[in-house]
Amino acid sequence: MRMMRDNWRATGLTILVLGALGLSVPAASAQQQQEPGQQQPQGQSGAPIPAYRSPLISDDNSDTGDNSQEPSPDTRPLAGTQNLALSGLETKRSFWQPHFAVSAAGDSNARQNTNNPTWSTWTSFAGGVDAQKISSSSQMSVGYTGGFMYSNDRSMPDGIVQQFNFADTLEFRRATLTILDDFSYLPEQRFGFGGLGGVPLPGGVSTGLGPGLVPSQSVLSGHAQSLINSYVTQLDVSATSRSSVTFAGGYSVVHYLEGNLLDTREITGRVGYNYQLSRRDTVALLYNFQEIAYSGSLGSINNHITEVSYGRRITGRLAFQISGGPEVTIFHTPISSTATTSTQLSWAMSTALQYELRRNHFGLDYSHGVSGGSGVLLGSATDTASGALVRRMSRTFNSGITAGFAHNRGLPTAANPTNQHYNYWFTGATLSHPWGRTVGVTLSYQMQYQNSNIPFCISSTCGTKIMRHVISFGLDWRERPLLF
User: Fold this and answer.
1) Using CA atoms, how far apart are residues 305 and 286, in angstroms rounded to an integer?
2) Is the confidence at residue 318, as pLDDT, over 70?
């Protein structure tokens, strides 16, 4: 009951913020033309993003807004909760931008059966709005996408998607306060999720939360609606012209509405020290605390992580960071009426790279550490990696390829006596083509494969591997940015 109250409280907060923003946005008085561009890869989503027009860019590739200068530098602290970016906000103008998408897909294994998969089709609809509000002391961005999907296979449940991202940065004389919220309600596990019917979801706003701050969902476990909400508050205080101190805290909840998957609640805390070696190079020392608690009386996991981090930024061209250090994990695992406590020493690591070169954008990320177990394990040692290459082939065509891998190994405790592990791969490709100034078409393919050392069960079938192919076609509409 406590977890359900947390979930609905988080849902109510996000709806309230979105409604407040909508009431504050007057009717647009001007529109700007745009040029075909692409969105940046969003964290570990791994799916290529269809091309959309960049805000406030004219057809002749000249900027008509306030952002006609070089891209603004990314000022996020290295010890912060967000991954480094190539640059700051795309534009210093306040705007809002609605979008809508419809798609059809063929799915070789919609039920994710381990035996005798069969082809079926999906029809999907999604829509939403992105908004950005800029003032002298605040930079706020909001993104919402909602949609649903249904199959010709009547035995398949309908899928519902709700995604909401909120970020606000408040600047003071010597301090910066950042508030981040990442909410999603998805029909499948998050890692590798290709969107509705395999077509990547529209929408361009992402909080960019780093590893460990968004719960791991990297094991295929069938169609099971899950509610996930991650909230973080971060305070950065300047110590000298080259150094700063970062404090952050937050929570995450995962609640599965179907199946026998494990609900989790996570509380996180972070403190870090940043030092700028040069205009491009930064180092940081940080400490992370994480508590992962399971529903019912299944116990909890406490993680203590100390990391050294290095980052390099070239505005508009390169963003690279790497962190690593020892991880001490304490397990509190009740077994029947007996509670046991054990301690494990391991290591944690995360790295992320974004690189822009002419018409190519390359993104890569990797993380290793203890996670909640993706709803199927009571804690796991998890490795995840994903990469995406988006290429602007011409003024009218964009293409993208993506690939990812996840390995989850049950921690050697009494709760996971079999030491079960899962290996999961996905890859895909997307080709998109603008059709007029606001409409685009997208052709997409994705493959998913998972195996395990012992049989696992999804629905009524059990086995050691799953293979799935999804071929889809989508039509996307995105209005030109409406200024306010």
Assistant:
1) 8
2) yes
Query: What pLDDT, on the 0 to 100 scale, is given for residue 58?
Result: 36
Task: Kindly tell me the sign of the dihedral angle through the C-alpha atoms of 158, 186, 85, 328.
Answer: negative
- Whole-prediction pTM: 0.83
User: Could you give phi then psi for residue 55, rounded to 5 degrees?
Assistant: -60, 135
State how far the alpha carbon of 341 is from the alpha carbons of 329, 337, 348, 390, in Å: 10, 13, 21, 47
Helices (H), 267-401: none
For residue 434 the two structure tokens come to: 């603008």
Domain architecture of the chain: domains with CATH: 2-483 (2.40.160)
Q: Which of 96, 233, 227 is nearest to 176 (CA)?
A: 233
Mean pLDDT score, 401-422: 83
Tokens of 390: 């988006």
Tell me the two tokens of residue 397.
Answer: 């065509």
Residue partners of 231: CB distance under 8 A and separation at least 6: 10, 180, 181, 182, 250, 251, 252
Query: What mean pLDDT value characterizes the chain?
Result: 82
Question: Which of 140, 160, 152 shows the shortest CA–CA distance to 94?
Answer: 140
CB 78 within 8 A of CB 84: yes
Pair 410, 421: CB distance under 8 Å: yes
Q: Is-contact 196 123, C-beta < 8 A?
A: no
How close are the terminal C-alpha atoms of the chain, in Å?
42
Residues composing the chain: 484
Cα 193 to Cα 160: distance, rounded to the nearest angstrom: 13
DSSP annotation string for 78-92: TTSSB---SSS-S-S
- pLDDT > 90? residue 468: yes
Q: How far apart are CA 71 and CA 87, in angstroms?
A: 6
